[in-house]
Amino acid sequence: MKLLAIDTATEALSLALLDGEMLHTRHALMPRQHAEQVLPWIDQLLAEADIGREQLDAVAVGRGPGGFTGVRLGVSLAQGIAFGLDRPLFAESSLAALAGQAQASAGQRVLAAIDARMGELYLGAFKIDQAGLPRLIGEEWLAAVDQAELPAEGAWIGVGSGFAAAEGKLSQRWQAGLVRSDSDQYPSAAVIARLAAGRYRAGERPESALVEPAYLRNKVAQTLLERGQPLPRMPAGL
Questions:
Q1: Where is the secretion signal located (predicted)?
Q2: What's this model's pTM, rounded to 2 decimal places?
Q3: Spelled out in words, what is the top-level CATH class assigned to the domain 2-94+187-222?
Q4: What is the C-alpha to C-alpha distance for residues 70 and 233, in angstroms, rounded to an integer?
Q5: 116 near 140, Cβ under 8 Å?
Q6: C-alpha distances in angstroms, 140 versus 35, 49, 151, 189, 217?
């Protein structure tokens, strides 16, 4: 199968193209450059694999949580590609895409934390399965850095920018329950591609290319207009 995966929910622009067992990737930190770079990167990945867009079997996207503009960009772009090609669109958690970066072994538990700004965190608890993929425990949630609690006792591996927020306060508060933490990791489209490919191979075919972004905040980022920020725009050339 051939599957394109996109995640633009955080400061990282992450793309992956799964071609059978071969995985082609692009991943880099580039705040505020996603809209300019995402389409050229997609074209580069497809050219590298010698695959035309019409040869794709499916598209996958990180649905968030993350920055409002980034989440909307990734979801809108993936919807446009999937709809234009009449291909299934798989939506995966950006926190799961982050948990998959924790270098954890099967059976270990991972706490993924993304800095949500304004003193808050996007959080998700995961357990690594036998295939090395993260599986959500319970539900993802939003919490203030000062109030976030470990979801359960025992050993956890922490990953994500949330562990650097507020001068690393989360790592300090959870020190007794953390085996280790890595605040330098961001959601990976390679993980999204593997999660979506598993669903595709299991016979799942989403009936609609419409994806509901996961913001977790009831009032999304205090609204962009209130904060004097421009609304997200689609990259030219879609």
A1: none
A2: 0.90
A3: alpha beta
A4: 10
A5: no
A6: 27, 35, 11, 19, 11
Give the mean model confidence (pLDDT) for residues 37-64.
Answer: 97
Q: What number does CATH give the domain 102-182?
A: 3.30.420.40
- Intrachain domains 2-94+187-222 and 102-182 with the same fold: yes
Q: d(Cα 183, Cα 188) in Å, to the nearest integer?
A: 14
Report residue 90's pLDDT band, with 50, 70 and 90 as the boundaries.
very high
- The answer to whether 92 and 195 are in contact (CB under 8 A) is yes
SS (H, E, C) the chain: CEEEEEECCCCEEEEEEEECCEEEEEEEECCCCHHHHHHHHHHHHHHHHCCCHHHCCEEEEECCCCCHHHHHHHHHHHHHHHHHHCCCEEEECHHHHHHCCCCCCCCCEEEEEEEEECCEEEEEEEEECCCCCEEEEEEEEEEECCCCCCCCCCCEEEECHHHCHHHHHHHHHCHHHEEEEECCCCCCHHHHHHHHHHHHHCCCCCCCCCCCCCCCCCCHHHCCCCCCCCCCCCCCCC
Q: Which whole number is the average pLDDT over 71-82?
A: 96
pLDDT above 50 for 227: no
Pairing of strands 178-182, 156-159: parallel
pLDDT at 225 > cutoff 60: no
